[in-house]
Structure formats: structure tokens, C-alpha cells
Specification:
- The complex is a heterodimer of chains A (359) and B (575).
- Chain A has 359 residues and is α+β, with helices and mostly antiparallel strands.
- Chain A is built from eight helices and 22 strands.
- In chain A, α2 crosses α3, α2 packs parallel to α4 and α3 crosses α4.
- Chain A starts with a strand and ends with a strand.
- By secondary structure, chain B is mainly alpha-helical.
- Chain B starts with 9 loop residues before the first helix and ends in a 5-residue tail after the last helix.
- Classes of the chains: A alpha+beta (359), B mainly alpha (575).
- The structure holds adenosine-5'-triphosphate and magnesium ion.
- The site of adenosine-5'-triphosphate has 11 residues of chain A, from α1.
């Protein structure tokens, strides 16, 4: 189990913008690092570069001390010599081999003895809870079972790193939810360094120790799931991870131990972050962090009159779309809410929940 | 932290050294394979074509001349060209008139016996047209034709003469109708019935639907079928050889044969003639590739949707009778005649018990050294061709489909050139190329193997590359990631997944070798005859029953391999 370190990785398929445009990141040993971003942002390309299935144009990839790829010193370890495990989006189980042969393939290549191979296959199948399907052909397995066999196949030979490309994308919603925890559980038990690609932010939240948000071949922001969710640094991250109200703001000046600025609906105070004041373009606030009250809450700053436009029942919560001085704000409130469309209420934004973001 | 899954890791380090060696071996092997296919395409495809062109500008002594072209454009050869085209046109019209209505009846009506008609047409498609031509000559030749003898007995007249232009056209059309039939049938079958039903719901009558919806939708297939039929008729050798030549009617393919059969053979002149021929075939093929390909509508339905059958009422039996008559005339009757002649002592006597003998089969299969040799030659040739086209085909298909090799388009075009050239023409190039140093193969089986390789390579590349396209790249990448190098991935994953395509390719190339006639006849020396050539020579010598027996043996072989191939294709395992 080794860390993966990527430095200034560039991959171009065609002239023009690069698919991966100078990415540097560290996937720590034994942790799950998730590449998250919209379609076409270069997640798969990055992962395939690590696997050795694409040859990058520039940069360096290291696994622990070992250099896997370096454009400068012209090193490119072939895929088969990297000792990496990979779970493909479509699982890529070899249809002409049984479960046993699929899992045993990588072991035989490493010169394991017959008895050790079979012992290991059993172990792996127990791990993925499919001990009874050892002689099944992949075509006779359900999607979820195939997914777990693919995972078992990738883990069987103790790879240094496990790469997963949208491992849950082909499962139905319910199974996907289940497998998130299962995957996390298996990774924790094996302690393998994992790099996972997804465009599903809730999946990333559950799975990851670290999330790397990508956009157009570059890293937009990286950090622990909580940090990414609660402290997005840019408008893009705020929008892409979860739901966010973005409040345009101008005329920023210091106020007490924080800052104050003008929004469309009035003056608003918020804390001073690490960001330079000139760069602040908007304030991000999560729908569940907005406080709704029937009367003006005197104890809270940043309270503004609003009119409820729409209420949508979503199950756990009710989504309220309210008009605040011409701007629409989305609020998630408990089901106990006693209000109707057209009611006039007050929305309050607690300063600590207002996150200044760049454009 | 790592618990139950962790195993001692020491076992991994030992193999690292080994694998570094493997990488360079992989690269060498791959380089070698690449080099081999490029070299063989250069030698067996490009080199004969260069000689075809060069030869057409040379005298027999190797001096440059335009004389051959002057002669080619003389009135005799221009007339010949005209005859060829007229013959092609008529045979195509007749074949279409037979095939297209039958396709409609089979695909869209409640006529009985559909699967029989489909199967019979597929068999007719694969049998060499020489077979019908020979059978029809046995039946309808002016003096000894079986039906003429029958009429003579009954009425004292011999009304039939096969050795006429119309006889040639009809027999050719009987062998050619499956080309359009199979195409239009499958187009009609795969058409979404909702398109026609939609027309019915807006109030169109059944015939209106046929005219305004069905016909326009299958028109591209009809045109493609027509074009394929025309190409088939333009290059076909069997009927023009056994019916045309005695009737003094020559077409391009037989003229090439005649020019090369004279002594001394006029090789260089034939090259010029071939290039003229090539020009006309090229027009049809260009039409095929660039005009027709664009005009297809995607009307394909999912599995299980069967277009509704149009009830014909009592007419269904009339349709059945007509289709039955066609299948009978094109396949069953000639086959039965060949079998019965091959089993008769005196071939002009109809089926009589005391006329029965298996002596001719004994002759052909066990005694006559000529036919014995030809059987051996055919099998050797077929095996060599299968092995060579399969191995080259695998490599080429792999390069085209699974690599980003810079030369892969060139490779693609190069290997499909012989496919777009009439067999006789390419064979002339092969003779010119391999009759002289540095590669003297003329008179050996080697020259046949060389020619078959180039001509049948596309038959292998086509299904193999289609099958390779079906194999998702991730399956191979998963092999690499798991630690298998290129060769191991190829051997353990790619090839096993291709198993069934390989098997059916083997069988189809084998069948192509068995039924090939024109290249074999132009290239064969007395000791390198194939079964087809032997049958043709025996025919020329008037050994009627032996010809029939040998043909029957050949037909049975073709049918067996073809049937197995079709059932293999039908059983793709890993869907
Ligand atoms: N083999 C290829 N050839 C050419 N361009 C490619 C190739 N693979 C990817 N690209 C391009 O590179 C860019 C990044 O692609 P990539 O597959 O890495 O995106 P992704 O983030 O994985 O997206 P998705 O979420 O849709 O899988 C895209 O613009 C894509 O069109
Ligand atoms: Mg992707």
C-alpha cells in the first residue's frame, strides 16, 4: 500500500485544450481519494494515466518511491508492471472465464502456486460476500454481483493501489446506495490506497477521505468531504457539490471583525475568510442553513423579508422557494412547517453559514 | 489495518525481474508480426498489381509499348465489351425479377414454405454457378440433352438449345438471384412494422402502403442488391465458360481465359484487356461504395418484433408454386440431374435400375490419379489459404481495430484491394508477377496459394474485425492492469473471445477455396489442378459421369462446411 503522487500531469488527445491540464495531487496511503467533476473534465483520463493505459504528455506519476511515469526522465512503466488493481466502469469481467478464473488470472501471472491461488480466491470471495459463486460465469451474475467480482479481481493480488472508474454507475439507485458503504467497508478492511472517479457527489461524500473537484482538466479544489461541502472556495464547487444559494455581493468593506457588503436585497454581514477581499464574488449558503421565521428574528443579523413562492414536498424535507428582494432563495425546512404559498416570512442567514466564493 | 485480505507480499517481488524481460520480448514479437503482414501485403497484393499495370505496357520481350491498348480498343474487343455489358445487364434484370418478388413473398406474406425457400436460396448462393451451368447443358444441349432426348422419344423433335445468348442469360440469372433475394429479404424482415402500421392508421390501403412506404424504404437494399448482382454477373466465369464458349459468345472473363489458353499465351496483352475490364468493374464498385452506402435508412427493429404478414388468401398457393418452381429450377433439379448422371452407366439413359453404378465415384475418389491429385491439391491449398489468411487476418484486424497505428488505414485499403477487382484480372497480375525472377512460382501450387491469400484475405479480415470491435477495450485493459503483457493478454483474453469468429472464418475461407474456379483455371498447371479445374477439364474431354461425380463430391463438401459455418455464426456464445 503506497501513496500516489502526481505532479503537473498533462494529457492531450488532440490539438487544443488538454484533457488533463497540469494536475498535481497526492493520494495518501491507505486513504480513498475521489476525483469528482462534471462529464468530460478529465477524471477518467487521469485515472487511466495512473493505470498506464494512457501515456501522458507531461508530468510525473510516482507510487511511493517508484517513478511510474516521468516525461523528463523518460520513464514509463508498462501497465502490467505497475501492480495496480482497477475496477472498470463496465466491470470488464472476462466473459469466457469463470469467477474463479477471473480472480485467479492475476495471481497465476504472479507465479502463485495452485493451492495458494485457490485459497486466496476463497478469501477474496468471502470478502465480497460471494463465496458460493466461485464457478459461475460472469454472464450469469447480476450487476451488483459482477461489480463485487470485479472488485475482488482487482484486490486479489494485493495491489499497491486500487483504481475505480465510476464503480457504481451501472447499478440501480438502491444497490448503489448499499454498495457505497460496502465499498468503503472493504477498502477499510484491506487498507489499500484507493483512487475513485465519480460524478456523483453524494457517492464521493460517503466514500472519500479526500475529494478532488475537477473542472476542465484542472483541480478546482481539494479537501476532506466536510471541508468541500462546508467551505467551497469557488462558485463552481458550491454549485457542483450539493445545492447552494449564491448571493451576488458588491461594495465589500470591513465591519467589526468580519466584512459587510451589498446584496440585491440589502446589506449583509459575513465572516472574513482566508480569501482576498477583491476576489469575493458571491456568498454561498446551503438551503438547510437558512433560517425561516414568521416574524423578524431580532437575535439574528442578515434577516430579510421574503415571500414564499413555491413549496415542494421532497420526503425528508420540504423545499421552499422564496423571493427575497427579487432573488430566489431555496430553503430546506422540516416537514412540520406551518406555511402556505404566498405567505410572507423572514429569511435569516447566519454569518457563519455564509461562505464567500470566487467566481 | 490490513487484516484478512493481507497475504505475504514477498511472492510479488520475485516475478518483477521476469516481467521486465517479457516486455522486450513482447515488443519484438509485435514488431515481427507487424512486419510480416506488411511484407506479405506488399508482395502478394501490391506487387501483382504493379506488374499488371507495367505488363500492360510491355511486349513479351519487355520493351515498352502502347500496342496492347491500341488492340484493346479495336472493334473486336469493343464489341466484346459491349456483349459483356449487355449480358450483365440482362442477367441482372432477370435475376432481380426473380429475387425481389420472392423476397417480398417470403418476408411479408403468409405464403407457406418460407424457411425452405430461404435455405434453398442460401445454398444456391454458396454453390458455384458452374454447377448449374453444367447441369443445364446436360439437360438442354441440342443433341444429347436429356430433355431433348425425351422429347425425341415422345414427339420426334429436339426443341431445346442451351447454347444461345438467352440460354446463357437465364442460367446465369438462376445462379445470381440469391444475391438480391437475401439482401432484400433481410431488409424487409428488419424493417420496423410500426412504419407501415402508421401508414395504415392514417388511412392508406395495403397496396398504397406497399407503394409509398415499403418500397421506398427497401429501395436502397434493392439497389444494393442490383449492384451486387451486376458485379456478380460481370465477373462470373462458370456459365460463360460452359455455355458461352460453345455458343461462340465471349464475355470479359472468358476472353481472358481464352487469351491465356492460346499458345503462346498473350500475357501482356491480357493485362491491358484486364485493365479495361477493371475499369468497368470499378464503376460498379464505386457506385456501391460511395452512392449506395449513403442511401440507407435505419429502420432496424429490436429483436422479437416481427412484421405482420400480409394474408394472400388462395394466392398464397400460387406464390408458393412460383417460388417453388424457381427453387426447383435453380437448385433441386440441376442437383438431382448431376447426382443421377454421376450414378449412371450410360448418362443419356434416364433413371433406370440397370443403369445404376457407383463406378464413377470409385474412379474419381480412388482410382483416377488426376482427380485424386486434384482433391489433394484442393485440400492442401484450402488448408494453406485458411492458415495464411487467418493469421494475417487476425493481425491486420487487430491493428485496424485495436491500435492507433499510423498505417492502419493504409493497411485496411491495401488488404481490401483484391476484393474490389475481378478475380480473373487480379489473377493476370499474379501470373505476370510470379512468372519471372525473383519470385518464380508459376506452375506450382505456390502461385495458387499466393493468389488465394490475397483474394480471400478480406473474407477473413471482415468477420474478425467485426468480432474484435465487439470486444470492449476494457477487457484487454483489465488484462494489462492485472499484470499480463501484450502477448499474454492476446493469448488468454483476445483469442479465446474470438474463438467462434475464428472458427466461422476458417470455414468460410475454406468454402471460398473449394468453390473458386477462375483463378484456379488461369493458374493451374497439369499437376496443380484443383477439383474445380479437374471437373472443368473432364468436362472439356467429355467425361460426363466423372465430371458429375467430381462436382457432386465438391458440392457436398461446400455444403457441409457452409452449413457448419452458418450454425457456428448463429451460436455466438458470449452475448
Ligand atoms: N480516447 C480519446 N480520444 C480523444 N479524446 C478523448 C479520449 N478520451 C477522452 N477524450 C476527451 O478528453 C476529455 C476528458 O475525458 P474524460 O474521459 O477523462 O472525462 P471524464 O471526466 O471521465 O468524463 P465522464 O464523467 O463523462 O466519464 C473529454 O473532452 C473527452 O472528449
Ligand atoms: Mg469517465
Amino acid at each position: 500500500m503506497k501513496p500516489i503522487e502526481i505532479t503537473s500531469l498533462v494529457k492531450r488527445y488532440a490539438p487544443g485544450p488538454a484533457a488533463v491540464d497540469g494536475i498535481s495531487l497526492l493520494a495518501e496511503q491507505g486513504a480513498v481519494t475521489t476525483l469528482l467533476g462534471p462529464s468530460g473534465c478529465g477524471k477518467t483520463t487521469t485515472l487511466r494515466c495512473i493505470a498506464g493505459l494512457e501515456t501522458p504528455d507531461e508530468g510525473e506519476i510516482r507510487m511511493g518511491e517508484q517513478v511510474l511515469f516521468s516525461s523528463r526522465s523518460r520513464v514509463n512503466v508498462p501497465s502490467e508492471d505497475r501492480n495496480i488493481g482497477m475496477v472498470f466502469q463496465n466491470y470488464a469481467l472476462w466473459p469466457h472465464m469463470s469467477v474463479r478464473e477471473n480472480i485467479g488470472f492475476g495471481l497465476a501471472l504472479r507465479g502463485w502456486s495452485r493451492s495458494r491461488i485457490i485459497e486466496r480466491i476463497r478469501q477474496v470471495l468471502d470478502l465480497v460476500r460471494l463465496g458460493d459463486r466461485i464457478d459461475a460465469m460472469p454472464g450469469h451474475l447480476s450487476g451488483g454481483q459482477q461489480q463485487r467480482i470485479a472488485l475482488g479481481r482487482a484486490l486479489a493480488y494485493n495491489p499497491e493501489v486500487l483504481l475505480l472508474d465510476e464503480p457504481l454507475a451501472n447499478l440501480d439507485a438502491r444497490l448503489r446506495e448499499e454498495m457505497r458503504f460496502e465499498l468503503r467497508n472493504i477498502q477499510e478492511r484491506t487498507g489499500v490506497t484507493a483512487i475513485c472517479v465519480t460524478h456523483d457527489q453524494s457517492e464521493a461524500m460517503v466514500l472519500s477521505d479526500k475529494i478532488v473537484v475537477m473542472r476542465d482538466g484542472r483541480i478546482e479544489q481539494e479537501g476532506a468531504p466536510r471541508e468541500i461541502y462546508e467551505r467551497p472556495r469557488t462558485e463552481f464547487t458550491a454549485r457542483f457539490i450539493g445545492l447552494s444559494n449564491l448571493i451576488g455581493i458588491s461594495g465589500i468593506e470591513p465591519s467589526g471583525n468580519g466584512l459587510r457588503g451589498r446584496a440585491a436585497f440589502g446589506e449583509i454581514v459575513f465572516p472574513d475568510g482566508t480569501m482576498e477581499t477583491q476576489k469575493i464574488a458571491k456568498l454561498s449558503v446551503r438551503p438547510e442553513d437558512v433560517v425561516v421565521s414568521a416574524t423578524r428574528p431580532d437575535s439574528l443579523p442578515n434577516a430579510f423579508p421574503a415571500e414564499i413562492k413555491t413549496l415542494v414536498y421532497q420526503g425528508e424535507t420540504v423545499a421552499m422557494f422564496a423571493d427575497v428582494g427579487g432573488q430566489e432563495i431555496r430553503v430546506h425546512v422540516g416537514r412540520g412547517l406551518e406555511a402556505a404559498e404566498g405567505d410572507r416570512v423572514f429569511l435569516a442567514f447566519h454569518p457563519s453559514r455564509l461562505v464567500p466564493v470566487e467566481a | 489495518m490490513p487484516q484478512d485480505i493481507a497475504l505475504p507480499r514477498s511472492s510479488l517481488s520475485g516475478s518483477t525481474v521476469l516481467r521486465t524481460r517479457k516486455v522486450s520480448a513482447d515488443r519484438t514479437l509485435r514488431w515481427l508480426l507487424w512486419a510480416c503482414v506488411f511484407a506479405s501485403l506488399g508482395l502478394l497484393v501490391l506487387y501483382p498489381l504493379i506488374w499488371l499495370i507495367m505488363g500492360s505496357f510491355q511486349t513479351a520481350m519487355g520493351e515498352w509499348t502502347l500496342g496492347h491498348y491500341e488492340e484493346v480498343f479495336s472493334s473486336y474487343y469493343l464489341n466484346l465489351l459491349w456483349d459483356s455489358l449487355w449480358f450483365t445487364f440482362l442477367a441482372t434484370v432477370v435475376a432481380m425479377a426473380l429475387g425481389v418478388p420472392m423476397a417480398w413473398a417470403v418476408a411479408r406474406t403468409d405464403m407457406p414454405g418460407k424457411s425452405l425457400f430461404r435455405a434453398a436460396s442460401a445454398v444456391t448462393f454458396v454453390l458455384p454457378p458452374l454447377f448449374q451451368a453444367m447441369a443445364f447443358v446436360f439437360i438442354f444441349q441440342p443433341n444429347a440433352g436429356l430433355l431433348n432426348l425425351l422429347f425425341d422419344d415422345l414427339f420426334g423433335v429436339k426443341p431445346f438449345d442451351i447454347f444461345t445468348f438467352s440460354g446463357l442469360v437465364l442460367v446465369t440469372a438462376l445462379g445470381a438471384y440469391p444475391q438480391s433475394f437475401l439482401l432484400v429479404d433481410s431488409a424487409l424482415r428488419s424493417m420496423d412494422p410500426a412504419l407501415e402500421e402508421a401508414a395504415t392508421t392514417v388511412g392508406a390501403s395495403r397496396w398504397r402502403v406497399l407503394r409509398s412506404i415499403t418500397l421506398p424504404l427497401v429501395l436502397p437494399s434493392i439497389l444494393t442488391g442490383m449492384n451486387l448482382t451486376a458485379i456478380h454477373n460481370l465477373v462470373v466465369f462458370g456459365p460463360p465458360a460452359v455455355i458461352g464458349i460453345p455458343a461462340n459468345i465471349y464475355v470479359m472473363a472468358t476472353q481472358i481465359y481464352v487469351e491465356l489458353s492460346t499458345f503462346p499465351p498473350r500475357l501482356e496483352f491480357t493485362a491491358a484487356l484486364s485493365i479495361l475490364f477493371l475499369g468497368f468493374a470499378a464503376i460498379l464498385l464505386t457506385f456501391q461504395l460511395f452512392v449506395l452506402r449513403r442511401r440507407s435508412f435505419s429502420t432496424i427493429v429490436g429483436k422479437g418484433m416481427r412484421p405482420r404478414e400480409i394474408p394472400l388468401g388462395p394466392w398464397r398457393w400460387a406464390a408458393f408454386a412460383l417460388c417453388g418452381a424457381l427453387v426447383f429450377t435453380a437448385l433441386l433439379f440441376p442437383a438431382a440431374i448431376l447426382v443421377s448422371i454421376s450414378l449412371s452407366k450410360v448418362w443419356t439413359n434416364w433413371f433406370q435400375l440397370d443403369n445404376f453404378t457407383i463406378a464413377h465415384y470409385v474412379q474419381v475418389l480412388f482410382v483416377h490419379s488426376r482427380t485424386l491429385d486434384s482433391i489433394a491439391n484442393t485440400l492442401i491449398l484450402a488448408l494453406v489459404t485458411v492458415a495464411s489468411t487467418l493469421s494475417a487476418g487476425l493481425v491486420i484486424a487487430y491493428i485496424i481495430v485495436k491500435t492507433r497505428h499510423r498505417a492502419r488505414q493504409i493497411l485496411n485499403y491495401l488488404s481490401f484491394i483484391p476484393y474490389s477487382i475481378p478475380g480473373a484480372v487480379f489473377t493476370v497480375g499474379v501470373i505476370l508477377a510470379f512468372i519471372r525472377p525473383p519470385f518464380v512460382l508459376y506452375g506450382t501450387l505456390g502461385i495458387l496459394a499466393a493468389c488465394y491469400f490475397a483474394r480471400f484475405l478480406p473474407f477473413a479480415i471482415q468477420p474478425l474485425s467485426a468480432a474484435l470491435r465487439q470486444i470492449d477495450n476494457s477487457l484487454l485493459e483489465a488484462g494489462r492492469v492485472a499484470g499480463a503483457g501484450w502477448w499474454r493478454t492476446t493469448r488468454r483474453i483476445t483469442l479465446p473471445l474470438l474463438k467462434f469468429s475464428v472458427l466461422s472464418t476458417v470455414l468460410l475461407v475454406f468454402v471460398a477455396c473449394l468453390r473458386e474456379v477462375v483463378s484456379a483455371i488461369l493458374l493451374a498447371a497439369p499437376n496443380t489442378e484443383t477439383m474445380m479445374v479437374s471437373a472443368f477439364r473432364l468436362w472439356e474431354e467429355g467425361a460426363v459421369q466423372e465430371t458429375a461425380a467430381l462436382m457432386v463430391v465438391l458440392l457436398v463438401l461446400v455444403l457441409v462446411f457452409f452449413t457448419v459455418a452458418r450454425s457456428v455464426i448463429g451460436n455466438r456464445l458470449y452475448d
